[in-house]
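We were asked to recover a plausible sequence for a given structure. The inputs and outputs are reproduced exactly as logged, with field labels preserved.

PROBLEM: sequence recovery
POSITIONS: 322
GIVEN STRUCTURE:
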C-alpha cells in the first residue's frame, strides 16, 4: 500500500503519503507509528520541536526489531529548530535527534522555519520552543541563512542526513538560497490546501527540481485546538465544504481522500495524521482514482490565500509574520 514514490534531486526515493507526527502525544506516538507501519506507511514526518522524538523512535525500532520492516524501508524526516541555526549548532542538533530516535541517519532533515532564535543549550531546555532559556520569548539571533545552510550541507556530506531541505519558505528566499547552495534542497515543505493553493510557488519550486511536501492538507482541521477560530459566515471547514463533499460522493471516496488526491495530482507528497486505523488506511488509499480537470478547477477555485500556520497569530511577535 506504499503507493508511488517521488524521485528526489539526488536520485533517492520518497514515499508520496506519510504520517505527520505534529501534535501526536508522547503517550501514543510509538503505538501509532507501529500500527501505521503494519498498515503500510513508510514515511514519518517529525521534528525536534514536536517533543515526541524519543517515543517516535521507540515505535520505529519496535517495528524494525519485530521484522515488520528494515531501516532502509523507512523514510524518516526531522527538522532543525530555530534555536540551532548557527553553523556549529546544526550537527549537534541533528545528533540529538538521531540519539532520541535511536537511528544512525535521517532520510530528510529540514530547516523548520527560516528564522534564527537565540541558542538554548540542551541542558537548559529541550526542545526550547520559543523560550531563550531565561523566560524570554522569541529572542532573535543574527545568523544569516547561508550559514545555516552550510551547516546543513555539512551533515549531508557526512551522511547523517541522506537529504536536506527547507520548510515554510517563500519564493524570494528559495531563489536566494539557490544562488549560494552547493547542495540544492531536495524538498520544500509548505502549508498547502484548497484555501491556500500557492500555484506560483509550487510551479517555481518544481521547475527547479525540488520536491514539495504539503502539510495541513485538510485545512482547518488541525488548528482549532491551538486557537484557530473560523468566521462562520465566511469560512466553511474543507472536510465539510459542498464542493469537496460533492466530488467525494461522485468517486465514492471520503472528503479527506479527495483533498489528499488533489495535492498528489499536483506532484506533492502529503503527511496527514490520524489516530484512527480506518482513517489511516483511507489516507493511504488515494491511488485508485483520479480527479478530472473540471474537478481540479473547482477545488482550485476555493483558494482564499488563507494561511493557517501563521505563528504570529498565536505568538505575539512580528518576527514570525509571513
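RECOVERED SEQUENCE:
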Amino acid at each position: 500500500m506504499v503507493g508511488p514514490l517521488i524521485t528526489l534531486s539526488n536520485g533517492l526515493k520518497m514515499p508520496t503519503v506519510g504520517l505527520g507526527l505534529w501534535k501526536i502525544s508522547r503517550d501514543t506516538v510509538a503505538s501509532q507509528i507501529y500500527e501505521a507501519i503494519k498498515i503500510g506507511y513508510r514515511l514519518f514526518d517529525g521534528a525536534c520541536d514536536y517533543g515526541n522524538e524519543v517515543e517516535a523512535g521507540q515505535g520505529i525500532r519496535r517495528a524494525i526489531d519485530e521484522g515488520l520492516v528494515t531501516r532502509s524501508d523507512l523514510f524518516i524526516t526531522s527538522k532543525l529548530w530555530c534555536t540551532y541555526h548557527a553553523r556549529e549548532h546544526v550537527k549537534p542538533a541533528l545528533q540529538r535527534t538521531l540519539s532520541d530516535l535511536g537511528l544512525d541517519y535521517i532520510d530528510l532533515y529540514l530547516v523548520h522555519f527560516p528564522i534564527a532564535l537565540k541558542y538554548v543549550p540542551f541542558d537548559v531546555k529541550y526542545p526550547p520552543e520559543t523560550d531563550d532559556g531565561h523566560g524570554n520569548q522569541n529572542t532573535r539571533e543574527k545568523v544569516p541563512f547561508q550559514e545555516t545552510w552550510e551547516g546543513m550541507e555539512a551533515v549531508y556530506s557526512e551522511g547523517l542526513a541522506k537529504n536536506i531541505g527547507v520548510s515554510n519558505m517563500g519564493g524570494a528566499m528559495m531563489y536566494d538560497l539557490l544562488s549560494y547552495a552547493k547542495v540544492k534542497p531536495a524538498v520544500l515543505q509548505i502549508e498547502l490546501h484548497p484555501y491556500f493553493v500557492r500555484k506560483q510557488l509550487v510551479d517555481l519550486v518544481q521547475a527547479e527540481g525540488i520536491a514539495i511536501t504539503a502539510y495541513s492538507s485538510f485545512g482547518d482541521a488541525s488548528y482549532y485546538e491551538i486557537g484557530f477560530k473560523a468566521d462562520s459566515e465566511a469560512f466553511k471547514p474543507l472536510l465539510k465544504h459542498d464542493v469537496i463533499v460533492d466530488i467525494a460522493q461522485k468517486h465514492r471516496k471520503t472528503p479527506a481522500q479527495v483533498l489528499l488526491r488533489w495535492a498528489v495530482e499536483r506532484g506533492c507528497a502529503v503527511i496527514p495524521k490520524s489516530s484512527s486505523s480506518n482513517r489511516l488506511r483511507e489516507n493511504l488509499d488515494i491511488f485508485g482514482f483520479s480527479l478530472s480537470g473540471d474537478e481540479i478547477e473547482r477545488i482550485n477555485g476555493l483558494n482564499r490565500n488563507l494561511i493557517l500556520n501563521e505563528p504570529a497569530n498565536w505568538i505575539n511577535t512580528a518576527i514570525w509574520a509571513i
